[in-house]
Amino acid sequence: MSAGEPSGDRLGADLLAALRARGVSFQAKGIGGPMLREAGLETIASMESIAVMGFASVLGRLPEIHNARRGLLRLLAAHPDAVFIPIDSPGLHLALARAAKRMGNRVVYYVCPQIWAWGRGRIRRLREDVDLTLLLFDFESALLEEGGAAARWVGHPAGALHPQPERRAEVKEMLGLDPREQLLALLPGSRRDEVRRHLAPMLDGAARVIAQLGGRVRAAVSDAGQVTAALRTPEIRALWDILMPHHWRGDAKELVRGADVAVVASGTATLETAALGVPQVIVYKTGWVNYEIAKRLVKVPSIGLANLVAGTRAAPELIQRNATGPRVAAELAKLLTDPAARDAQLRAFARISERLGGPGAADRAAAALIEFVGSGGAA
User: Fold this and answer.
1) In a domain, 379, yes or no
2) Do 146 and 233 reside in the same domain of the chain?
3) What would the pLDDT profile of 214-247 be if each residue is shown by its tens digit?
């Protein structure tokens, strides 16, 4: 098993837990992070050493990535009967899937590598190098079927989430807020590069809207492990000291449950925020080289997963040069002061949990894997 970033780490850990819950005995080795290690994965390389965002960022981690790749290939060679389960991170895993397949290992790819965004050339890779792809999104099924790649839709973990308005007051009380104050959650991401790029405009925008609304709003920043390091940057530290937000180090979903509105880095967290019934502003900012390459390759109408899954542009998206403090503040002000704007976004996302498959995604993935192994590796 191999996970190259935190979302994959969570998916892998949930899959191992679901296998155990079904009474399956297994030995798991490979690349993973803290959640996979806690779930029982024996790691040959840490996810933290190779997790990067964007094309240019890979260059700084090439030695670690090459070492992890060689270690995984040695592991597969030593266990020719093993099933290889790469999770997301196509930049790392498509090549590893091809190598594993040529070595004779069976390959089950967990998370389709966004063929709908990057074009359909990857379908051929899945058809040739992967025995079974487990899909998070139902709309991917027809694309893979058309391309002759074996696949099974198992759903997304965010499908288990639903609005919990009763939790809002509890979380606010936990943070020491007055019930009449509005809580603004800032979710800058989980990887070092994305936190460093997203945190400044988020803090700046939050400070501006709080000043505009007369202090009736309080902010909290979700820290998945990289915020403290980002605070060493003078600009970010200065903005933090102006805003003085709560520093939330727990589960980001718990913070969102208490929020009236959120600013969220593009990714899985946008789905979770939408499923929890919290209006959001989506932010995405990357390096110039990464952006110029992606702009020429990516073929989707929206960058936010919540908007893509719901087939809408309900959540405003501030991308690259538009991801500034003033723009963040302007969008937040609408959601905090205009009930019609809030309601329109919530209505657009009302069925998103259903579209994600509802509860039980990890168990369905475990069932598909058990069936695959039981059939001798035939999808």
Assistant:
1) no
2) no
3) 878 999 999 988 899 999 999 999 999 999 999 9
